[in-house]
Specification:
6-stranded antiparallel β-sheet; 14 strands; 2 helices; globular; 3-stranded antiparallel β-sheet
C-alpha cells in the first residue's frame, strides 16, 4: 500500500487548550516537491510518500536507529562537507548498502574517483535507486528505493570516462560498505 504525506499549504497554527492560535508559522510549499499531487482541498495537499518502498518507519523510529548526522542526511536531505566522508577515497571490493535500511545500492566496480569530494558511482544496482527532480529543477536527487533515504544527486554529461556518462554523487554517511570477503 502506498503511504501518503500531508502538506499543509495554509499557515500552521500552534494552539493553546482553548484552540485559539498562540502563533502561526507560514509554510512555503515551494520547498517541497509537489509534483506528486493527488488532490488539493481546504489547504491540504496529499502527496505520495517518497518512502513508499517496502521499508517504512515513523520519524521517531528513524531517529532511534540512525545517528543524528545520518538522520539529518538520510531523512532531512542534508549534505556532508566535501572530502570528509569515509568512502570518498575508499576503493575496497564489495557492495555499498543503504545506511538506513541495508538495501544493496552500488557494486564497488561502479565506483570511480571524480575529485568532487564525495563517493562517485556511474550506476546503481537495478531498481535500487529512485530519481526525483529537485524543486528548483537544477538537479536530480537520488534516494534509496526501499526506504526513501536521501543519497545525494546524479549528474550527467560531465565527461567522465564511464559507461553511462553519469556521476552519482553520494554522501558517505548514507552508505555502509560490505566487503566481498565477508
Amino acid at each position: 500500500m502506498m503511504g501518503f504525506n500531508v502538506l499543509r499549504t495554509t499557515p500552521l497554527s500552534i494552539c493553546s487548550s482553548n484552540t485559539k492560535p498562540i502563533f502561526s508559522i507560514p509554510l512555503r510549499p515551494s520547498l517541497f516537491n509537489i509534483q506528486k499531487h493527488r488532490f488539493l482541498r481546504g489547504g491540504v495537499v496529499v502527496m505520495a510518500s517518497s518512502a513508499s518502498g517496502p521499508v517504512q518507519k515513523s520519524e521517531e523510529e528513524w531517529r532511534a536507529i540512525l545517528s543524528p548526522q545520518q538522520f539529518r542526511i538520510l531523512r532531512q536531505k542534508g549534505t556532508e562537507y566535501p572530502g570528509t566522508g569515509e568512502y570518498d577515497n575508499f576503493f575496497g571490493e564489495g557492495v555499498y548498502k543503504c545506511a538506513g535500511c541495508g538495501t544493496p545500492l552500488y557494486k564497488s566496480t561502479t565506483k570511480f574517483h571524480s575529485g568532487c569530494g564525495w563517493p562517485a558511482f556511474f550506476e546503481g544496482l537495478p531498481g535500487a535507486i529512485k530519481r526525483h527532480a529537485d524543486p528548483d529543477g537544477m538537479r536530480i536527487e537520488i534516494t534509496c528505493a526501499a526506504c526513501g533515504g536521501h543519497l545525494g544527486h546524479v549528474f550527467k554529461g560531465e565527461g567522465f570516462a564511464t559507461p553511462t556518462d553519469e556521476r552519482h554523487c553520494v554522501n558517505s554517511i548514507s552508505l555502509k560498505f560490505s566487503s566481498a570477503d565477508s
